[in-house]
Amino acid sequence: MSSQQHPFVTDDSKVLTETRDARLAGQDDRFNSRLREAFGSTPFILTKFDKFMNWVRGSSMFMLQFGIACCSIEMMHTYAVKHDLDRFAAGVPRASPRQADVIIIPGTIVSKFAPRMKRVYDQMPEPKFVIGMGSCTISGGPFQEGYNVIKGAEEVIPIDIHIPGCPPRPEALVYGVAKLQERIANGESSPVVVKPYELEQFGDLERDEIVEQLAEDIDTDDLVMRYNWGDSP
Amino acid sequence: MSLEEQLPDTVEEGQSADELAELLGDLVIDREDHVNAPGFVIRPDTVQDALRRLRDDAGFDHLSCVTAQEYEDRYESIYHLKKYDDPTQEASVVVPADKEHPVSQSAEPVFRTADWHEREAYDLIGIDYDEHPDLRRILLPDTWQGHPLSMDYDQDRPQIVSLREHANPLQEDQRSDSDSDTMFLNIGPHHPATHGVLHVKATLDGEQVADVESDIGYLHRCEEQMCQTKTYRHQIMPYPDRWDYISAGLLNEWAYARAAEDLNDIEVPEYAQIIRTMGAELCRMAAHFLALGTFALDVYGDFTAIFMYAVRDREEVQNILEDLTGQRLMFNYFRLGGVVWDLPEPREEFFEMTRDYLDRLPEHLEEYHDLVTGNEILQMRTVDTGILPPEVAKSYGATGPVARGSGIDYDLRRDDPYGYYDELDWDVIVKDGCDNYSRLLVRMLEVEQSAKIVEQCIDLLEDWPEDERNIQSNVPRTLRPDDDKEIYRAVEGAKGELGIYMRADGTEKPARFKIRSPCFSNLQTLPEMSNGEYVPDMIAALGSLDIVLGEVDR
Fold it and tell me: Looking at residue A194, what is its pLDDT?
């Protein structure tokens, strides 16, 4: 390209040459990563497509902006300055479940919220991953004996990683996210199809006195669900 | 000012219990004596009459809390009344109701705040309130069977729920009849602007909000039941941390500590009171920073700048609190009769660290004022939107920065002193703009006052003689307050008046534990603030209320 034809454009071949020289000579090694060394001069990688996709999924996770209770405060701290989860490729939270890969469940699940959480989870595109943050998502935590508390988020949706603590420190959450990324990169994940609620016909329930009594109140043709808390650990 | 005009003439002196009984006349069928206030037992069909007399003729204009409970032989609702002018003047109106058919007259026509309080009582205890405009379940799902805090409730009984109840509320066409102009808008329970799991059902007329109804209970974690099954001495204390979880743990712990200490006649050493005061004010600062950050998030939709600044400040406060208590968020630091341990060694380092932070704070606050309160865009969004007139706020029992942003000069730290507050030099911030901006400004200015309190506490602690550092008084290992001793005590939490009602039954666990949550009352004002405003102003109003759902739902 001659400078006469394009008077305002510098001759970039000169710049490129200088940059290349600087890199080759080792003065500027910003781009000379170990990965580049391994590739040599070839622009191609030979790998399995599945493996590549897993690596991509683990390296770029879109989190769902999903706050429930106390743990969400520590989750916000993890997203924000100082801990900055973005450094670990698990970036800025998305407000819509349809754009998210990972849902962090930060808090106690109660009977009224469980169906809503299930719906949010269902709206996420697959493959999707779940991080259970805090004791409440493991077992109900300090509120386990409550009449209204679901004893662990796993009653409702499958959990890939449990992070214990009440609440877990941001460091613990970062560690959990890193562990999840490791698992995703290795192609592991919990099954997507799970036992959600016990969806049963009313007639399938064990016919005890209470059920008999309730049967009068509820239309027998109607489907019911039963929070199966008696059997939960 | 309008505040002073509406006050009746009789309030300049507090009335004695006998004078109040005389005022109520033949409505009183019996007298009780609670630790905090005289109790007047009235018939269940004279509730409105009694409350109206107490409000209009004796100046009890603040229905702080409604507690419902079940005894062996009766149901009972207690209306805890206070005065906004002087919250140390209290009265309890006790309304027994029949065991078989618990029906009691609603107080809603007298105090608007009774609306939600009575719905909660109906939901959890099962008392029917006659003449209540809208008696539905509030915390539990509509499909719930039984009233969980009543005596015959069996928790192991399965809850069987028809699937229709959980159908997608948006599935059906929400446009109503073709001649209607309104549209239904569903916000939450999973929505970034609702500060947790609040569900707001809004009816829109064009772009304006015609009606809004908050649907709560998505975080009802049975806190009251938890506390009723735990012992006074140690087991209850971890739970208050989880009511208002925005780092306001110590303020909540103080609510329980104050009520339990007064119930059991426990003295707290002065040194411990100073540590408590310092810790509590640090918590208030952290809580207000988050309120500021999320409010900016709501109004600007800006996740990067102000929110991050606010979190930066919170991190610093949390570091100090972590040094003090050993935890970042759930401190569990107070004990009945004091605090669990002394300041961390080396003390000089702790003082220096705290002072360092306080020295940097004015600069940070200036930054906030540049970014937030001085910003024209924010002013356009918040000034004169979300108006909450003082009379309405009082009727809804609003407290804390929400009340102080509406010109109500009410702060329990000064008006009903506890801890070390009355020895220190600080001011109550009151703004009479009644709008979103005032509420925001009150919080920001309160941070300054809190910093002032912390600074004075640090000075006191530094000079405290080494052999007088008494962090806990002598408290028996097991506490068994006398049977039928009742108390209602409140402290100024980050969001307002956080009160605890406890009734002892002679055992080491409370027979009834009721939490008066400031957010629960404050949230009720949302329709008043947002009806007729635009949708984004409704969101701003919600943000300026600074609710935390753990405390609303408990």
Answer: 36
Q: Is B136 on the interface with A (CB under 8 A)?
A: no
The whole-number average pLDDT for the span A12-23 is: 67
Residues B119 and B242 placed together within one structural domain of the fold: no
Q: What range defines the domain where residue B301 resides?
A: 230-480
Within this chain, do residues B344 and B475 fall inside the same structural domain, yes or no? Answer: yes
**Does residue B528 fall inside a structural domain?**
no
Residue B139 burial (10 A CB sphere; 0-12, 13-18, 19+): buried
Domain presence at residue B434? yes
The partner residues of A131 in beta bridges, in order of sequence, read A104, A161
Q: Does B176 touch chain A (CB under 8 A)?
A: no
- Give the percent of chain B with pLDDT over 70: 93
Q: Does A145 sit within 8 Å of B221, measured CB to CB? A: no
Spell out which residues of chain B touch residue A78, defining contact as CB-CB under 8 Å: none
Residues B311 and B442 in one domain: yes
Domain count, chain B: 2
pLDDT band for position B167 (cuts 50, 70, 90): low
Starting at the edge strand that comes first in sequence, how are the strands of the sheet with B90-97 ordered?
Answer: B28-33, B38-42, B90-97, B75-82, B62-70
Which of the residue ranges A19-23, A81-85, A92-96, B407-411 would you say has the lowest mean pLDDT? A19-23
Q: Residue B6: is its pLDDT beyond 50?
A: no
Minimum Cα–Cα distance from B294: chain A residue? A76
Amino acid at A112: K
Q: Is B530 helix (H, G, I), strand (E, B) or coil?
A: helix
Query: How confident is the model over B393-437, as pLDDT tens digits?
Result: 999 999 999 999 999 999 999 888 888 898 889 999 999 888 999
Q: What is the ipTM of this complex?
A: 0.86
Is residue B472 located within the same domain as residue B324? yes
Hey, of A63, A66, A68, A70, which one would you mutate to test binding to chain B, going by the most B CBs within 10 A of its CB? Answer: A70
**Class of the domain covering A53-185:** alpha beta
Q: Does B151 touch chain A (CB under 8 A)?
A: no
Task: For residue A58, give how far its alpha carbon lies from the nearest alpha carbon of chain B (Å).
Answer: 24
**End residue of a domain, out of B114, B130, B146:** B130
Judge contact between A65 and B292, C-beta under 8 A: no
Domains in chain A: boundaries: 53-185, 197-233
CATH label of the domain that carries residue B95: 3.30.460.80
The domain boundary residue, chosen from B78, B101, B130: B130
- B124 and B257 co-located in one domain: no
Q: What's the rounded Cα separation, in Å, for the pair B118 and B520?
A: 12
H or E stretch covering B19: helix B17-24
